[in-house]
Queue: 2 jobs
Job 1
Amino acid sequence: MDVLARYEPLVDDYGAFRAACERPLPTVVRVNTIEADVGRATDALDEEGVGWEPRAWHPGLLELGTDSPGNTWPYFLGWLHGQEEVSAIPPVVLDPAPGDRVWDACAAPGSKTTQLAAMMDDRGFLVATDDTLGRLAPLRSNAERLGVTNLAVTHADARNFSLAAFEFDTFDAALVDAPCSGEGTIRKNPAALDGWSESFLAGVAGVQKGILRRAVQATRPGGTVVYSTCTFAPEENEAVLDFVLDAEGCRIVDFEVPLESTPGVTEWQGETFDPSVERARRFWPHHNDTGGFFCAKLEVAG
Ligand SMILES: C[S@@+](CC[C@H](N)C(=O)[O-])C[C@H]1O[C@@H](n2cnc3c(N)ncnc32)[C@H](O)[C@@H]1O
């Protein structure tokens, strides 16, 4: 089955979209500001003779002239972390402050956890949860390599997450970077769509709804919840938002990321969604030469 063909009605330039999905992704790293600043990291890359180019919207994201950033000294020292450009969007949208209490509900292997920690100046309290035991080791080792100390790692199903172990009742903010069908990762992993089925979509959408619902419940009134996926499927994106708008007290709010994007869709295969899902953003591979991504920002009702 040609899975991507189902998105033809949603895309402005279908030919460009398909062509971008065939191309490999650029190699992008994030400068880890817990251990280094951008100048120190780029000086070290210069010393190794590795070319770099900052991404226009985020000076700490560098496109590198090597496919193996992990073999460079600044990477080994924890000054750099390999992270796809669109993967850096949700922490920027969440915008945590040093001192906040933040929950990363689907955290492994920790690209966004460690970015959140850096944005918090490694202060406050960050809880990183994942329900897949085998993914906790890479999460921990990434956090250690990058010098993160404000972090507690927990193994739990985020749908039933309990705050009983903590001395507070709610987080200031939560990130749900949800498990998904991964359609938008096709440029990194050409086999990404091999196991695709509508029944998988239905199953994973149920998990996404449960996790997002728990994240809203676990966040204080007025706090922020960011929802993201790396898939194009409205079943896993706008439909999940539509569900949580009905189920919990929250609203979707606008956000700005200086990358080209399109609004969330309000109709899909005969279903209609709350008009405010248009405030979510869809990032298409052909617009910014990235993977595919979806991101929404929610404010918890006061
Ligand atoms: C898209 S990945 C997260 C990537 C991560 N945020 C990062 O930036 O490195 C989704 C994660 O959700 C986890 N997951 C799946 N179901 C879950 C659940 N019910 N509760 C918590 N985590 C879950 C998976 O094990 C997977 O690690």
Job 2
Amino acid sequence: MIVATTEQPVEINVDDLMQFVFKAVEEVGATLNTALVVMGDKLGLYQALAGAGALSPAELAERTGTAERYIREWLNAQAAGGYVTYDPDSGRYTLPPVQAAALADPDCPAYLPGFFQTALGSMIDSPKITEAARSGAGFGWHEHVADVFEGCERFFRPGYNANLVSAWLPALDGVVAKLEQGALVADVGCGHGASTILMAQAYPNSTFVGSDYHAGSIETARRRAEEAGVAARVRFEVAPAGGYTGTGYDLVTMFDCLHDMGDPVGAARHVHSTLKPDGTWMIVEPAAGDRTEDNFNPVGRAYYGFSTLVCTPASLSQDVGLALGAQAGPARIADVTGAGGFTRFRRVAETPVNLVYEVRP
Ligand SMILES: C[S@@+](CC[C@H](N)C(=O)[O-])C[C@H]1O[C@@H](n2cnc3c(N)ncnc32)[C@H](O)[C@@H]1O
């Protein structure tokens, strides 16, 4: 088959073309499933299916107070995608145990609804990002729909629950002993405060200051701290990373936010000036390799997507606009910390989605 392009004819194999088309069909199905997973999450469909055995659409609709015709269509889409199983004889659908853990158990480290929620929120804002890409303008984190913030919190929290206290903090030199004795900790770019509250619960002798430039997130973080019963030892403030208050910190933490900042080097300088001389800066960043091609895998693909729609525009919306991107990789993060005055940089832990660095003056 010969296809004429504007430049010159190029020969294309029809089988290869159809293979690519069918890959695209699968991806369109997967894209639509993002909205369907959020729908199932918000309507309580996964919760109702979990452990319930086989249910008909009418039974699921009745248990969730929803309309049967919508639920039947939703279940068929879920079955076609392998999220539920379907028994043609009974016309009933089952949520298998693995899917139930990942979709209906917020305590599962692999709990996924938040991932889909933040992805859907990012896509809702995509027309604005498309326009920004014409001009090079930024689009602030705070300008997104609430699903981006809430989904981010719900996606990251299970990973922090599974790793922060058991693996990441113990990987830092001498930090756990200080936290147990009573340390002063700043959690910068804390969003809804999931990491701040988790650390406060684990280390009752320590005091925590969570900060974020987004006022709406700080309001939620304060509410979460009240609900968790740690508000007396956790103070939240609205502040950019280059201007949070206090000095003499034993530990400064940044979870999945350094690359979102317009001026990460300025932030690094501020961290340096607020840390004790023997203090530690812990940076958690998305898992990434240094070379672009290192990140051509499913995790890298998802992060490049988020980076295009959320992280890069967020950084470009702020002063300096360095725009590290969500796949900056260890070498660029090390450069940023060095430019901020730090002399020691060490990768101390990793998960399939995160890298953890210990940075010291
Ligand atoms: C991906 S979210 C991570 C939030 C939180 N650390 C977590 O792990 O759930 C990135 C956060 O960085 C914050 N942020 C972006 N630029 C900032 C800046 N210059 N100073 C402080 N916070 C900033 C955003 O408001 C947002 O809450």
